Amino acid sequence: MVKREPKPTFDPAYVRDISEAVYRHQLGAEDVQRMIEKDEDQGQMLRNRAGSYDQLTRVYLKTLGFEPPAIAADVGDAGKP
Q: Cα–Cα distance between 69 and 31 in angstroms, integer?
């Protein structure tokens, strides 16, 4: 049986950071602040909700010409063209 190399993927934390930034922008500063105060968790629930954008974020990155890093590449440079 031939062993396949894993397909390079974007670092999940990198994708979530972008998704969270988009979600915060979409909500607006006042709504973000109100949501964080209501949830009383320093924004963790907001970050989790932003996960609904993760798949689109990956597609947008690829569409814009960003590629996942090689498996052995430094994650700090994830997705840079």
A: 34
